[in-house]
TrEMBL record:
SUPFAM superfamilies: Tim10-like (SSF144122). Mitochondrial intermembrane chaperone that participates in the import and insertion of some multi-pass transmembrane proteins into the mitochondrial inner membrane. Also required for the transfer of beta-barrel precursors from the TOM complex to the sorting and assembly machinery (SAM complex) of the outer membrane. Acts as a chaperone-like protein that protects the hydrophobic precursors from aggregation and guide them through the mitochondrial intermembrane space. Heterohexamer. The twin CX3C motif contains 4 conserved Cys residues that form 2 disulfide bonds in the mitochondrial intermembrane space. The keyword Membrane applies. It comes from the Eukaryota. Coiled coil: none annotated. It is a peripheral membrane protein. Signal peptide: none annotated. It holds the Pfam family zf-Tim10_DDP. This is Mitochondrial import inner membrane translocase subunit. Its main location: mitochondrion. Keywords: Chaperone, Disulfide bond, Membrane, Metal-binding, Mitochondrion, Mitochondrion inner membrane, Protein transport, Translocation, Transport, Zinc.
Length: 90
């Protein structure tokens, strides 16, 4: 949908569309967060010896999260670049 098409919609439809987009963004953010937690926790935490992470586990989780977020950001940027350059199917 082109921005001009969105502007041509009635206000009620614009509001509905905006709400739907917001919900999808929240859902996608939660999925990414859950995936990050599962991957990094599963990779870095080996036992439940105490309530807090030891230094090695904490470092591993931090590095894992940084890599995951950098990778996700790069994929998103690349997708946006590709999406801008390709014609939209009509």
């Amino acid at each position: 949908m082109e921005p001009a098409d969105f502007e041509a919609l009635p206000e009620e439809d614009k509001h509905r569309m905006s709400t739907m987009i917001d919900q999808l963004q929240v859902r996608d953010s939660l999925k990414m967060y859950n995936s990050l937690v599962e991957r990094c926790f599963g990779h870095c935490v080996e036992s439940f010896r105490r309530k807090t992470l030891d230094k090695q586990e904490e470092t591993c989780v931090r590095r894992c999260a940084e890599k995951y977020l950098k990778h996700s950001m790069r994929v998103s940027m690349r997708f946006a670049e590709l999406n801008q350059g390709s014609p939209t199917p009509d």
